[in-house]
C-alpha cells in the first residue's frame, strides 16, 4: 500500500490540521492526545470532510486534488471505516447490517460472509437484535461490515474505546491478524500506547494537527 | 343509531378523498421537507412561508384562492379544461385538492422534524459502504425519519377529514358529489336533523380515534425496529 497525503490543510476549531506525508506500512498507527486531529485526518481520507487543500492518493487511485477541484465520491473510495461511536444501522437486523456493503455482488472467497463472520467469531450473534449487542460485539460487527464491503483500506478510529481489558485483548489479537488474513492495510487511530504497540508496525504522532514524529511504536511509545 | 346508506356513502367518499389527497401530497411533502431539513439555499424562507400559509390563512380565503386558480377562468383550471377536458371546481377533484392544500403544511412540518432527527453519521457510513445518494435516502434516511413521516401522514389525513372552509368554497356541498363528513354534519345541524348529525359525529370520533391509534401503533413499531 502507498497512501500519499500532500499539502493537507483543514481548519479545525482550535488549530489547523496540516499533514504532508506518505504511508507505506500495512498497519500504521496514528497516535496522539484527544483533540489532536486524528479523527479529522481519517475523515478526510474517507471523504467525509472536505479539506481546504490536499492531494490524497491511495496506490494509483486519486482521492482528492483540491488544485484541480477533484474529489472522488465517498462510495467509490472503497474505504472500510470503523468509527468509535456505535454505527450499526439501528433499523436493520444484524445480518442486513453486515450485508449492506456487499450490494448483492459475490465477493472473493477472502471476503465471503462465512469467512469474515467466523474470523471475527460473530456467527452466533447473527440472529440477535442490533440493540441487544454489547459494545464489544457491536464493534466486531462494524469491523465485519467494513470487511464484507471488500475495502482497499481500513480506517479504524479508536475502535476499542470503552471496552474492558479482556475484550480489548481478544479484539486486538483479531485486528493484528486481520491484515494477514484479508490482505487489507489499515490506519489505526488510538490514544492508548499499548494498543499502538500491540497492533502497529509504524506509528505517527499527531499533536495539535501536526505530525511531530514517526517511527517504530515500541521505540517511540514505550 | 346505525348510519343510513346515504350517510355511509358520505363517510366512504370522505375517507377515499382524504386518503387520495394524502397519497398525492406525500411525495411532494417529502421533496419539500427534505431540503428544508438539510440545506440552506436562497429563497428557503420564502418556501417555508408559502408552505405554512394554508395553516395560518383563514380556510375560506385559501378556498377562494383555489377557486381562482382551479376555476375555468383560472390559470390551472383553464389549462386542465382546455387540454385535458378536466373540470376541477365543484367536483370530487376539488374536494381532494382542498384537502391536499390544507393538509400539506402538517405533513411537511412533521416530515421535516423527522428528517432533522436522523443522525447523519449513519448516512456517511452507508456511503463508505458503497451506497449512492438514492440508496442512502431510501434505505437509511427514510426509515430513520419514518416516525416523523408517519406522524405527518396521520396528521395530514386527520386534517383532511376535518376540512370544511376551503372545501365548501371550491367544491360546494353537492349531495352525492362533493358532500363530505364535515359538510354533512354542518348541513344536518342547519336543517335540524340532530339524529343524523350525532350519528355522523360518532363516526367522526371513531375515525379520529382510529387515526391516532394507528399513528401511535406505527410509531411504536418503527421505534422498536
Could you describe the 3D structure shown?
The complex is a heterodimer of chains A (222) and B (225). With 222 residues, chain A is an alpha/beta fold. Helix content of chain A is 30%, strand content 27%. Chain A contains 7 helices and 11 strands. Chain A has helices spanning 38-46, 94-99, 113-119, 135-148, 165-182, 193-199, 217-221, and strands at 3-11, 16-23, 27-31, 53-58, 61-65, 70-71, 79-82, 153-157, 186-190, 202-207, 210-215. Chain A has a 6-stranded mixed sheet with strand order 7-8-9-3-10-11, with helices on both faces. Chain A has a 5-stranded antiparallel sheet with strand order 2-1-4-5-6, with helices on one face. The longest helix of chain A has 18 residues, at 165-182. Chain A is globular. With 225 residues, chain B is mainly alpha-helical. In chain B, helix 8 (146-162) runs antiparallel to helix 11 (194-224). Chain B is globular and about 65 Å long. The model of chain B has no long low-confidence stretch (mean pLDDT 92). The interface between A and B is medium-sized, with 24 and 18 residues.
Provide a quick synopsis of the model:
Chain A is built from seven helices and eleven strands. Chain A is of the alpha/beta class and 222 residues long.
Low confidence ranges of chain A: none
Which structural category do the helix and sheet elements of chain A fall into? alpha/beta
Low-confidence segments of chain B: none
> What amount of the residues of chain A lies in strands?
25-35%
Question: What portion of the residues of chain B fall into strands of 2 or more residues?
Answer: under 5%
Question: What integer is the average pLDDT of chain B?
Answer: 92
* Distance between the first and last residues' Cα of chain A: 27 Å
Q: What composes the largest sheet of chain B?
A: none
Largest interface: A-B, 24 and 18 residues
Helix count of chain A? 7
The average pLDDT score of chain A comes to 91
Total count of strands of chain B: 0
Please write the string of helix (H) and strand (E) elements of chain A: EEEHEEEEHHHEHEHEEH
The DSSP helix count of chain B reads: 11
Cα-to-Cα separation, first versus last residue of chain B: 41 Å
Percentage of residues in helical conformation of chain A: 25-40%
Secondary structure class of chain B reads mainly alpha
* Basic shape of chain B: globular
Amino acid at each position: 500500500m502507498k497512501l500519499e497525503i500532500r499539502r493537507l490543510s483543514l481548519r479545525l476549531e482550535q488549530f489547523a490540521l496540516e499533514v504532508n506525508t506518505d504511508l507505506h506500512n500495512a498497519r500504521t498507527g496514528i497516535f496522539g492526545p484527544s483533540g489532536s486531529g486524528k479523527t479529522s485526518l481519517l475523515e478526510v481520507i474517507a471523504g467525509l470532510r472536505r479539506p481546504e487543500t490536499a492531494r490524497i492518493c491511495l496506490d494509483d487511485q486519486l482521492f482528492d486534488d483540491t488544485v484541480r477541484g477533484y474529489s472522488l465520491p465517498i462510495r467509490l473510495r472503497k474505504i472500510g471505516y470503523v468509527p468509535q461511536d456505535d454505527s450499526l444501522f439501528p433499523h436493520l437486523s444484524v445480518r442486513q447490517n453486515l450485508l449492506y456493503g456487499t450490494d448483492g455482488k459475490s465477493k472473493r472467497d477472502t471476503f465471503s460472509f462465512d469467512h469474515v463472520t467466523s474470523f471475527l467469531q460473530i456467527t452466533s450473534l447473527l440472529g440477535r437484535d442490533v440493540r441487544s449487542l454489547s459494545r464489544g460485539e457491536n464493534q466486531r460487527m462494524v469491523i465485519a461490515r467494513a470487511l464484507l464491503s471488500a475495502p482497499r483500506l481500513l480506517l479504524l478510529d479508536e475502535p476499542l474505546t470503552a471496552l474492558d481489558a479482556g475484550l480489548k485483548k481478544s479484539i486486538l489479537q483479531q485486528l493484528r491478524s486481520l491484515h494477514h488474513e484479508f490482505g487489507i492495510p489499515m490506519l489505526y487511530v488510538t490514544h492508548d500506547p499499548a494498543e499502538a504497540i500491540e497492533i502497529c508496525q509504524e506509528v505517527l504522532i499527531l499533536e495539535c494537527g501536526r505530525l511531530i514524529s514517526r517511527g517504530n511504536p515500541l521505540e517511540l511509545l514505550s | 343509531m346505525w348510519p343510513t346508506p346515504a350517510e355511509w356513502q358520505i363517510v366512504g367518499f370522505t375517507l377515499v378523498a382524504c386518503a387520495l389527497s394524502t397519497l398525492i401530497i406525500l411525495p411532494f411533502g417529502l421533496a419539500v421537507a427534505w431540503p428544508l431539513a438539510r440545506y440552506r439555499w436562497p429563497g428557503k424562507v420564502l418556501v417555508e412561508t408559502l408552505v405554512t400559509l394554508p395553516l395560518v390563512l383563514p380556510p375560506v380565503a385559501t378556498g377562494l384562492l383555489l377557486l381562482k386558480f382551479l376555476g375555468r377562468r383560472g390559470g390551472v383550471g383553464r389549462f386542465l379544461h382546455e387540454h385535458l377536458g378536466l373540470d376541477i371546481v365543484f367536483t370530487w377533484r376539488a374536494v381532494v385538492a382542498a384537502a391536499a392544500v390544507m393538509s400539506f403544511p402538517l405533513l411537511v412540518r412533521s416530515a421535516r422534524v423527522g428528517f432533522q432527527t436522523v443522525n447523519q453519521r449513519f448516512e456517511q457510513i452507508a456511503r463508505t459502504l458503497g451506497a449512492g445518494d438514492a440508496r442512502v435516502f431510501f434505505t437509511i434516511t427514510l426509515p430513520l425519519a419514518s416516525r416523523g413521516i408517519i406522524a405527518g401522514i396521520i396528521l395530514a389525513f386527520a386534517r383532511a377529514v376535518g376540512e370544511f372552509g376551503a372545501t365548501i368554497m371550491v367544491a360546494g356541498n353537492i349531495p352525492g358529489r362533493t358532500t363530505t363528513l364535515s359538510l354533512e354534519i354542518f348541513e344536518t345541524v342547519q336543517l335540524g336533523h340532530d339524529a343524523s348529525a350525532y350519528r355522523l359525529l360518532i363516526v367522526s370520533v371513531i375515525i379520529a380515534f382510529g387515526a391516532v391509534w394507528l399513528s401511535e401503533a406505527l410509531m411504536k413499531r418503527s421505534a422498536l425496529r
